[in-house]
């Protein structure tokens, strides 16, 4: 049985690890992987058809804990303990819920002190006792009648404060669960990492030629709040920047990957002539959600890949979500021909669905390339194929639910037909 410390408005954890509100999804998963001998059953709950409509949840089945992540920013929003009989809980080093200590109203009063009157929910037949960043939910008997009173807990129609046990506990940021806010990235999540708030395309002649990064780093802030410890910086990268330029702007990559094969090269018109003697390589920035491809000869940037990190994608949880905004000229459909209309612009973002953009960016005669990912470690892909569309110098990878999985930006001299080659 886990023995965890509750810190209202901040975290739930042990001496060796903790789940902190605001931490990215992947960091929580890494904790669960390291604690696999203790935390043995974990469910990932999401909606495959509308992944942005419902929160992303990690359910610790054997421990009675749910970690609820915001579906857009994919950071820990709420921690729910829904079965207190499966876990030991303490506050300031003193247990208030364990096999030897029953989590009653009296015990909550004794451990956490006085608070405002309880809030009653008539639909769920529950009332909650709220502290800042922490709520306790108690059931009420079906035949009990509740009448609001200014006397707080004394007005609750229960036979005894010691006869009713806590059914659920919520940890969140804010004064109440209903008004909880999106938490900032905690200081403990940085540890030398760089996070990204927004990536914007830099356009020339209507086509993206570089990227503008709005980054967050761990700064020497004087305040106590997590926001005061963050230092925002702006960096720009363009095609032709050297590996040294990229490291100076974004820091050292999380990983360097050398290409051993190129599955898209078969679509090149010069495939039989294009046999590289050296290997191009990627800088993988997992916490930014970006890959940068460098030419093996010139060591200059030749491709940017932005990852949306949607659940249900083969690469889910490898990268943090990249919140991008790329402007592209739309395709003007005529009676006989289809041409590019540079005056009309389409905004390609992380959250827009391909169904709303397809008619504006892709010609009716264009068919997608079907991509079925696999690896030497995992030869089966349970999530199915994705579809790649070439749009100007951009490759858009689309999932079966019409959400955009990744965006690959190639050098502008690539046309719609040749973008797949790189």
Largest sheet: 8 strands, antiparallel
Radius of gyration using CA atoms only: 26 Å
How are strands sequenced across the largest beta sheet?
A: 4-5-6-7-13-12-11-10
The assigned structural class equals mainly beta
User: In one word, what is the shape?
Assistant: elongated
How far is the N terminus from the C terminus?
A: 52 Å
Number of helices: 4
Mean pLDDT: 85
Percentage of residues assigned to helices: under 10%
In words, what does this structure look like?
This protein is mostly beta strands. The strands form four sheets. Strands 4-5-6-7-13-12-11-10 form an eight-stranded antiparallel beta sheet, covered by helices on one side. An eight-stranded antiparallel beta sheet has the order 17-18-19-20-26-25-24-23, with no helix packed on it. It starts with a strand and ends in a 12-residue tail after the last strand. The longest helix is centred in the first third of the chain and has 10 residues, at 25-34. A hairpin with a 6-residue loop joins strand 6 and strand 7. The chain has helices at 25-34, 105-112, 243-250, 354-361, and strands at 2-7, 11-13, 18-20, 42-45, 56-60, 65-69, 76-81, 87-91, 94-97, 119-121, 126-131, 134-139, 168-171, 195-204, 207-218, 230-238, 255-258, 281-285, 290-294, 301-307, 324-333, 338-349, 369-371, 386-391, 394-398, 404-410. The chain contains four helices and 26 strands.
Annotate the secondary structure layout.
Layout: E1 2-7, E2 11-13, E3 18-20, H1 25-34, E4 42-45, E5 56-60, E6 65-69, E7 76-81, E8 87-91, E9 94-97, H2 105-112, E10 119-121, E11 126-131, E12 134-139, E13 168-171, E14 195-204, E15 207-218, E16 230-238, H3 243-250, E17 255-258, E18 281-285, E19 290-294, E20 301-307, E21 324-333, E22 338-349, H4 354-361, E23 369-371, E24 386-391, E25 394-398, E26 404-410
Parallel strand pairs: 1-8, 14-21
Antiparallel strand pairs: 1-2, 2-3, 4-5, 5-6, 6-7, 7-13, 8-9, 10-11, 11-12, 12-13, 14-15, 15-16, 17-18, 18-19, 19-20, 20-26, 21-22, 23-24, 24-25, 25-26
């Amino acid at each position: 049985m886990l023995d965890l410390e509750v810190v209202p408005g901040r975290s739930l954890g042990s001496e060796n690890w903790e789940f902190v509100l605001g931490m990215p999804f992947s960091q929580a998963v890494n904790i669960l992987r390291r604690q696999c001998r203790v935390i043995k059953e974990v469910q990932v709950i999401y909606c495959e058809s509308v992944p942005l409509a419902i929160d992303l949840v990690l359910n610790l089945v054997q421990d009675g804990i749910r970690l609820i992540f915001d579906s857009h920013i994919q950071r820990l929003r709420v921690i729910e303990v829904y079965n207190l009989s499966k876990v030991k809980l303490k506050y300031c080093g003193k247990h208030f819920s364990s096999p030897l200590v029953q989590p009653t109203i009296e015990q909550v009063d004794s451990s956490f002190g006085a608070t405002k009157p309880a809030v009653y929910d008539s639909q769920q037949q529950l009332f909650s006792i709220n502290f800042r960043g922490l709520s306790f939910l108690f059931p009420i008997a079906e035949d009990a009648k509740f009448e609001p009173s200014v006397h707080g807990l004394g007005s609750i129609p229960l036979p005894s404060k010691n006869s009713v046990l806590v059914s659920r506990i919520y940890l969140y940021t804010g004064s109440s669960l209903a008004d909880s806010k999106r938490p900032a990235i905690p200081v403990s999540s940085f540890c030398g990492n760089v996070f990204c708030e927004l990536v914007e395309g830099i356009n020339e002649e209507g086509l993206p030629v570089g990227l503008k990064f709005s980054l967050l780093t761990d700064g020497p802030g004087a305040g106590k709040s997590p926001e005061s410890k963050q230092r925002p910086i702006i960096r720009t990268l363009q095609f032709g920047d050297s590996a040294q330029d990229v490291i100076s702007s974004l820091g050292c990559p999380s990983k360097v990957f050398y290409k051993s094969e190129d599955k898209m090269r078969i679509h090149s018109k010069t495939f039989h002539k294009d046999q590289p003697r050296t290997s191009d390589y990627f800088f993988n920035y997992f916490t930014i959600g970006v890959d940068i491809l460098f030419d093996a000869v010139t060591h200059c940037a030749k491709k940017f890949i932005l990852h949306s990190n949607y659940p249900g994608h083969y690469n889910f949880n490898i990268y943090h979500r990249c919140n991008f905004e790329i402007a592209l000229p739309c395709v003007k459909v005529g009676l006989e021909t289809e041409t590019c209309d540079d005056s009309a612009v389409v905004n390609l973002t992380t959250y827009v669905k391909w169904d709303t953009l397809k008619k504006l960016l892709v010609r009716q005669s264009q068919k997608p390339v079907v991509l079925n990912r696999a690896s030497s470690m995992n030869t089966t892909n349970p999530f199915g194929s994705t579809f790649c569309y070439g749009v100007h110098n951009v490759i858009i990878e689309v999932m079966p639910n019409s959400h955009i999985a990744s965006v690959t930006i190639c050098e502008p001299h690539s046309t719609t037909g040749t973008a797949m080659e790189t």
